[in-house]
Amino acid sequence: MPQPIAADHAPAHATQQLTQASVLTAAIQEDIIAGRLLPGAKLKLKELALRYGTGVNPLREALSRLATTGFVNAEDQRGFSVSRTSREELLDITQTRQRIESDALRASIAHGDIEWEGRVLAALHRLNRQPMMLTDPEGLNPAWELAHDAFHEALLSACPSRWSMRFSLILRQQTARYRNLSVIGPAEADVRNVHAEHEAIAKAALAKNADLACALLSEHLRLTTALVLEHADRQGKVS
């Protein structure tokens, strides 16, 4: 019986395919989060191969990976499709995120050292320098989205649980998808001081006040979901 090939002795073409699948996973996920691939859309391999300039095999691997994180549905004999969105799912994502991120933040505060404090302050500073909204074209600022994700990651970065960090990342990415599907306008963004919310969370975390930091984080997530659902209702984009 042939022996399995060790990862470090895999053929070059196999390594290249794995690398290509990883790049494709990130690219397709980004298009789903940004709303360029809409909820419920069929993901036909031949069309995607032309779109991303790649082969069918790495595409199938990428879509299978995305199915494990909830961005893609994989059905026997029916292929792949973009996962649908719903009010119930967003509420579930938010409540799960509140629990997991609060636990992770509490652990991060307990284990946080001066390097962690520096990461939080640097991430907050970069976030505060980015406008949340663009006016031309109107919509969320992609640079703000990146800085926003980095800030939340920095808050949790001293948490020793890799699983908590992994699930937190998936939940943040799912939240970002809903945020992009129901983009608010600059005038509506002004009704909420998101910068002040971030400042308050960071201040409480750095002061080692875990109870307050977790309460502020949970409320921050709740407010985001409420605003997304309110706007989605008007647009009819989340059922």
UniProtKB/TrEMBL annotation:
Superkingdom classification of source: Bacteria
- What are the HTH gntR-type domain coordinates in residue numbering? 18-85
> Which Gene Ontology molecular-function terms are recorded?
DNA binding; DNA-binding transcription factor activity
PROSITE patterns per UniProt: HTH_GNTR
**Keywords from the named record:** DNA-binding, Transcription, Transcription regulation
Keyword Transcription regulation (UniProt): yes
Record carries keyword Transcription: yes
Name of the protein: HTH-type transcriptional repressor GlaR
